[in-house]
UniProtKB/TrEMBL annotation:
<keyword id="KW-0378">Hydrolase</keyword>
<keyword id="KW-0347">Helicase</keyword>
<dbReference type="InterPro" id="IPR050534">
    <property type="entry name" value="Coronavir_polyprotein_1ab"/>
</dbReference>
<dbReference type="InterPro" id="IPR041679">
    <property type="entry name" value="DNA2/NAM7-like_C"/>
</dbReference>
<dbReference type="InterPro" id="IPR027417">
    <property type="entry name" value="P-loop_NTPase"/>
</dbReference>
<feature type="domain" description="DNA2/NAM7 helicase-like C-terminal">
    <location>
        <begin position="17"/>
        <end position="69"/>
    </location>
</feature>
<dbReference type="GO" id="GO:0016787">
    <property type="term" value="F:hydrolase activity"/>
</dbReference>
<dbReference type="Pfam" id="PF13087">
    <property type="entry name" value="AAA_12"/>
</dbReference>
<keyword id="KW-0547">Nucleotide-binding</keyword>
<protein>
    <recommendedName>
        <fullName>DNA2/NAM7 helicase-like C-terminal domain-containing protein</fullName>
    </recommendedName>
</protein>
<dbReference type="GO" id="GO:0043139">
    <property type="term" value="F:5'-3' DNA helicase activity"/>
</dbReference>
<dbReference type="GO" id="GO:0005524">
    <property type="term" value="F:ATP binding"/>
</dbReference>
<keyword id="KW-0067">ATP-binding</keyword>
Length: 71
């Protein structure tokens, strides 16, 4: 019963997406999790102006960015 209630509460939440797959869409609140699987240091993804634009402009009401400044 508890699992069913949790499932029902999460049912309306959109699934996770990549920036590339989210292009052309928007949502009330967007949560961006900055991470890397790339072994080389450097700006990586954030050096791509178009991707950065998509990441920062797809929210209607709120944008939350989570990351490690040292990565």
């Amino acid at each position: 019963l508890r699992k069913k209630a949790a499932y029902e509460a999460l049912k309306g939440i959109p699934p996770p997406s990549t920036v590339d797959s989210f292009q052309g869409q928007e949502n009330d609140i967007v949560i961006v999790v900055m991470g890397t699987a790339h072994p080389k240091p450097g700006p990586g993804f954030t050096s791509h102006e178009q991707r950065l634009n998509v990441m920062l402009t797809r929210h209607r009401c709120g944008l939350v960015v989570v990351g490690d400044i040292n990565v």
